[in-house]
Automatic annotation (TrEMBL):
This is Aldo/keto reductase. Belongs to the shaker potassium channel beta subunit family. SUPFAM superfamilies: NAD(P)-linked oxidoreductase. GO terms for biological process: methylglyoxal catabolic process. InterPro entries: K_chnl_volt-dep_bsu_KCNAB-rel, NAD(P)_OxRdtase_dom_sf, NADP_OxRdtase_dom. It holds the Pfam family Aldo_ket_red. Keywords: NADP, Oxidoreductase. It comes from Mediterraneibacter gnavus. PANTHER family: HYPERKINETIC, ISOFORM M (PTHR43150), L-GLYCERALDEHYDE 3-PHOSPHATE REDUCTASE (PTHR43150:SF4). GO terms for molecular function: oxidoreductase activity. The lineage of its organism: Bacteria, Bacillati, Bacillota, Clostridia, Lachnospirales.
């Protein structure tokens, strides 16, 4: 690193306590472990956001044992800007600590114009990994994911591309995201034949969204030795106290309503959130903490991906692994509230 950059480096002392409070869970049957809480760089890391705040969030996360930073080629907005910003943070803060970190990215959704910037083709995936590495100033990522099922492209082509990316030294492991049970099973079979280290499926999961239980992928992954990392464990912020008294001006709905809309915050939903908040208070947790603990309540999910808009939110949520157990009565009450 150039001398002029050293003043911004985060230098740790000989006695380093970063890893003492974080729990690390085995990823399926692989040799890798994920922190119970990982940081997703989806929202708040784009071209419209404050760079100093991004850097502060990443440093706060790493300072408290969050070793995994999860990105995708089209995170932003604009597309690619989250990776570009993370590349700057890597150079300024994290380069000496790269071997202590897990950095992951994905490709599968629309990224650039024309017929070759979307889906699961070999051409798209090969081009995307090269672009992602360049933006992040890395030689390889720890995990490269195919971001979504593409029923128009033969799965064999997509999986062969992932295997070749590993063989080329551009990724250590591969994963899939948003794959259902059928596609996960087929992907696993193909990648086993290709001797490619397929270790994780990234799926949406929360108290309000239990599709991975309903479609059987949660049970299959445990049986097949594939880890699960859950995204949107707070249901885009609904499983917090943020919307109990209206929609704040700095909320995700107010700033970026692409994925959560004001119409989603119904009186019925608010009543459920209030009831869940009461259970959380009885447990000595915030609602957000309980929601994360619930996702981690068994060994089928090895990590939860959190988003954040400020460092204090990260600090609030890192303790959840310590309270991941629930009584039968608590689980029954939660189910009654969420499923009615």
């Amino acid at each position: 690193m150039k001398q002029k950059d050293r003043s911004s480096l985060h230098v740790y002392q000989a006695v380093d306590t970063r890893y003492e409070t974080m729990q690390y869970n085995r990823v399926g049957k692989s040799g890798l472990k994920f922190p119970a809480v990982s940081l997703g760089l989806w929202h708040n890391f784009g071209s419209k956001d404050c760079y100093d705040n991004m850097k502060a969030m990443c440093m706060t996360a790493f300072d408290h044992g969050i070793t995994q930073f999860d990105l995708a080629n089209n995170y932003g907005p604009v597309y690619g800007s989250a990776e570009t910003n993370f590349g700057k943070i890597m150079e300024e803060c994290f380069r000496p600590y790269l071997d202590e970190m897990l950095i992951t990215t994905k490709a599968g959704y629309d990224m650039w114009n024309g017929p070759y910037g979307d889906g699961g083709s070999r051409k798209y995936l090969m081009a995307s990994i090269d672009q992602s590495l360049k933006r992040m100033k890395l030689d390889y990522v720890d995990i490269f994911y195919h971001h979504r099922m593409d029923r128009e492209t033969p799965l064999e082509e997509t999986m062969q591309a992932l295997a070749d990316i590993v063989r080329a030294g551009k990724a250590l492991y591969v994963g899939v995201s948003n794959y259902d049970r059928e596609y996960t099973k087929k992907a696993s079979e193909i990648l086993k034949e290709l001797h490619c280290p397929f270790i994780v499926n990234q799926r949406r999961y929360s108290m309000f969204d239990r599709q991975i239980e309903e479609d059987g992928v949660k049970a299959f992954c445990k049986q097949d030795g594939i880890g699960i990392i859950a995204f949107s464990p707070l249901a885009q912020g609904m499983l917090t106290d943020k919307y109990l008294n209206g929609i704040p001006a700095d909320s995700r709905i107010a700033r970026d309503d692409r994925f959560l809309h004001a119409s989603d915050i119904t009186a019925e939903r608010i009543a459920k959130i209030r009831a869940l908040d009461q259970i959380a208070k009885e447990r000595g947790q915030t609602l957000a903490q309980m929601a994360l603990s619930w996702v981690l309540k068994d060994d089928e999910v090895c990590s939860v991906l959190i988003g954040a808009s400020k460092p204090s939110q990260i600090l609030e949520n890192i303790s959840v692994a310590e309270q991941a157990s629930f009584s039968e009565e608590e689980l029954k009450r939660i189910d009654e509230i969420c499923m009615k």
